[in-house]
Amino acid sequence: MVEVDITIPSAFDPFAEAKDSGTKEYVHIRIQQRNGKKSLTTVQGLKKEFSYEKILKDLKKEFCCNGNVVQDKELGKVIQLQGDQRKNVSHFLTTAGLVKKDQIKIHGF
């Protein structure tokens, strides 16, 4: 009998990239509707070695808004800002060099 060396093509896995990029952590910027026109902007997923209080202080000074740092059981520390500051925060984080543009996910309506 003759041995034939045949390679069977493996199936394409569309989620291969997602499995490989599991180490990539995103910074999530969300908006939460309060009552009426009022809203909150939340920032989660920053590295733990950053000083959240200093970042919050700079954000409040830059955008003329109020905010605070909240400790969540599941999410860790979360920065909350008054108003819709999603674009401002993403621009601030990239220009300050804290995160790269491709690591930011902006959520909301």
TrEMBL record:
InterPro entries: SUI1 (IPR001950), SUI1_dom_sf (IPR036877), SUI1_euk (IPR005874). Residues 27-97 form the SUI1 domain. One of its GO terms (molecular function) is translation initiation factor activity. The keyword Protein biosynthesis applies. The keyword Cell membrane does not apply. Keywords: Protein biosynthesis, Translation regulation. It comes from the Eukaryota. CDD domains: eIF1_SUI1 (cd11566). GO terms for biological process: regulation of translation. PANTHER family: EUKARYOTIC TRANSLATION INITIATION FACTOR SUI1 (PTHR10388). Probably involved in translation. This is SUI1 domain-containing protein. It comes from Salvia splendens (Scarlet sage).
